[in-house]
């Protein structure tokens, strides 16, 4: 809840926004008055890693919605761009600073475009699937669904650099 977040924020090294249903997650963040405090923490430099729905929460613009959620990362995203659950797939691709990693996509978003300060870390079929802007790391895929921890280690290193 908000009180716990504000109290524990000084102890946070980083924040992971996981996959799930971004509309529901955004609504819950609003209902619990968490949207603004989390947004402020991110803009103040708290490292954050958004995977799938977490990526959507961080996007400044979502093509199918009038408003964004946290809106901290300079990118435009398209929700559910990889289609239905049956359209989910697994592949391997090069991720800058990490190497070739396994990627599991489950109805994942596509990053349609990024702003000048955003570094593209990985693409699959000419679509941006991982990127970083300052203290914000995002992936369209679910790195937690494989045994490869290198992308998580990349984020941990971001958190250590912040400390």
Present the secondary structure layout.
Blueprint: H1 2-8, E1 15-17, H2 22-31, H3 35-43, E2 48-51, H4 53-58, E3 59-62, E4 73-78, E5 89-95, E6 99-105, E7 110-114, E8 119-124, E9 127-133, E10 136-139, H5 150-162
- Give the beta-strand count: 10
General shape: globular
Count of the separate structural domains: 1
Mean pLDDT: 90
CATH superfamily: Class I glutamine amidotransferase (GATase) domain
Architecture in CATH?
3-Layer(aba) Sandwich
Oligomer status: single chain
Query: Segments where pLDDT lies below 50 for 5+ residues?
Result: none
Strands side by side in the biggest sheet: 1-2-10-9-8
CATH C-level category: Alpha Beta
CATH topology, which one? Rossmann fold
Radius of gyration: 15 Å
Tell me the number of helical segments per DSSP (H or I, 4 or more residues long).
5
* N to C succession of SSEs: HEHHEHEEEEEEEEH
> Helix share of residues?
25-40%
Molecular structure report:
With 163 residues, the chain is of the alpha/beta class. It has one domain (17-162): Rossmann fold. Helices cover 28% and strands 33% of the residues. The protein contains 5 helices and 10 strands. The chain has helices spanning 2-8, 22-31, 35-43, 53-58, 150-162; strands at residues 15-17, 48-51, 59-62, 73-78, 89-95, 99-105, 110-114, 119-124, 127-133, 136-139. The strands form 3 sheets. It has a 5-stranded mixed sheet. Strand 5 (89-95) and strand 6 form a beta hairpin. It is globular and about 40 Å long.
